[in-house]
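Structure, all two chains, one model.
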Amino acid sequence: MEQLQLRDLEARCIQEEQPFCTAACPIHVDVRAFMTSLAQGDLRGARRVLDRTMPFPEIVGRLCDQPCRPFCKRGEIGDPLAIGRLEQFCVSNTPTILKLPQLPAKGGKVVVIGAGLSGMTAALDLARKGRPTTLVSPLPSIGGSLRCSPDSVLPQTVWSQAVVLMEGYGVSLCTSAPLDQESIEALIGSHDAVYFDWDEIDPAQVPLRVGTPDPLTLALDRDGCFGGGGSRPGRGYSVIQQVEQGRRAALSIERALQKVSLTAQRDKEGSCATRMVTVTKYFAPAAEILPADPTSGYTAAEVRSEAGRCLRCECMECVKQCVYLREYKEYPKTLIRKIYNNQAIVQGTRNANKMINACSLCGQCTQICPNDFPVASVVRTTRQGMVASHHMPPSPHDFALEDMRFSLSKLCRLSRHQPGTSGSRYLFYPGCQLAGSAPEAVKRSYAFLSQHLQGGVGLMLGCCGIPAHWAGQEELFRQTLDDLILEVRRMGNPTLITACTSCLAVFKEFAGGLAMTSLWELLDGLQLPTPSLIQPPGPLTLHDPCTARHQNELRRSVRNLCAKLGLDIVENECSNELADCCGYGGLMQMANPPLGRKAATVKAERSLLDGLAYCAMCRDNLAATGRPVAHLLDYLFPQTAGGDPLARANPGFSQRHENRARLKADLLASLWQEHAAPVPEYKKIRLILSQEVEDLLNGRHILAEDLQRVIHRAETTGSYLVNPANQHRLACFKPVRVTYWVEYEPTGRGYRIHTGYSHRMQLPEVKP
Amino acid sequence: MSTFSFLEATAWQCNQCHQPLQAAKVMVTYLGGSFNVELMACAGCGFILVPESLAMGKMLAVEQLLEDK
């Protein structure tokens, strides 16, 4: 990822956009932070927020005409917040908390003519920037038209406070100044920049043609002269606009004195638009809290309640749904920043590796994002880069890639035309996980398709290569897919019928030349087998797999099939294109197993109802959370002696291997009268495992065949340790990269396994 | 290079050499990193014992550290 690309991507995430109130506020007061402090009863914290942005909080906080209020999101579900009244309470009950720093004195003499609020603001801002500033007023005191405010609204003490504040920053005050064209001309001549506050100064008085000042810079026709403030035609007098104009002019003057562009990058000044999106459906409506006693105003408790209605507008729409973003406490903008920094590390620890490998690449966030933020494609590209630069850690993906190699090995791989035919119009491709999870369902589906489709239905067992694609191993992925494409061509280009939505998504994206359909769409067009005798006890929620997100027709067919089977289906909050990943996608559960389990739990708990899946991996992962979940094929082609489809356990990794190999052997024998490749000697070793040990080994990604290999080697060479106290044996074996250890005990019925573990650290070779 | 010791009394004995295990200095390696460690091993055939606690504890932690380098 290049830095430019990073910036482009960052800009697509709107989480850090200004909330609606702040964007609408001409001086961008952080209203959200102000409300947060007030709601916590932290009045000083709230005042600090105002002090940071407001030039004269005692004045502005009491008089602000709240142009932000119509933009308050709370207005959609109740009344907008009473921001003005809350500001009044805050400034009336707190002293100044934050005194902004003053920059070191610089040159450039400035005079502000007219001491209304805009002139006062300009003078204060410029003095803070280190510019020697004089504030001149023809009147005996400052304040302009605000001096007429009744004492009940604006206590007279605020003016002396304002004078003290300005003088503290070095503003020279000059009141009751005789101002005529001549004296003003003299002031212009003796200063580097001038600001006229039209609240106090009549444009007709000044010795230059005023016209309409440039709205962006407030520059007048003469160099170094600026003007603003006062009433605006048609809009009247707005307190907060006085502040905005004074501040805008001060920035223009500062830029003019620095001799830099007056106009560059000023689009966010003043009220501006925001790209923020806040969905209000998660909040309960709430009406405005009015002061119980209108004359004395809010009580402290009322302030907390009213401020507590603030929605604290933010986006976080993707984070609300995504277990991965929540786990790592990121939103897309911060996530890709971490990814970028991680890949930029030359020497040192790449702390974000695990995070990068834990994303399920499911695309749910992109679907939700108003700007389609492409987290999955960024993460996948990053993984590919890590593989290419040899920075991809081996452990997160090794197990899944070995699993893929096993599915592609001659023990599991198969392609045949329908028995008795020499060509195939169709080719059933159940996918590695259905073969591993429910081999009987594969057999029955194939039998049905063979009977009901004309032109020959071939069968292909294998793997589409998606684990390699997820792991960033593009070369391996391409090779796997190319081999598959070649094999399909060799079989005469039949139409692939996929049972797995991941396979179909891969073929659609990377093997567009193949003819393909999904098992579900195909079955939807056929006369179904006689209605199933097995019916679930109640309605089921349908768990769409994440890889069906963009396969609308397929999802519709699944629903049609359910209707035809008489299954009562209830959609859940993350159905269809919003589907969660079950934890297998992107190899999440390999890189971060606890997170994988969390993802499965979140998906399973989207509904309280029992579940129905049509992805084998979803089925097994959701079942592993303890929720009753069936596979659609369990109802389409029920096993006569099969148990309750909702109660089928997760087979685990070892059984999946076993199922795949046995499926091939069974089908070869029963349909094609062929014998499968001879089973290796070590596979004949009988293992005895308690459930506890089996779960432990599953969690450690140690397969039954790993145990068999260790024991086979130990028993044939005699190279093992023995514990004389209990006669347990301990042996190890390193088939490829991982060294497996097994503590076992020979019994008459086989080898009882006590524990198994592994490491990648390599020991010196020992000759047995 | 310093040596890390993971010696602990063990009941395991070598099946082939019929003798208790003894301390042995060995070099373990992973992804370009190598470490001198003391482990229990058979003095006869050199069979090195990696106990479960070590494999799933310290050794795993070091492996993961090296993987993120």
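Chain A has a mean pLDDT of 95.
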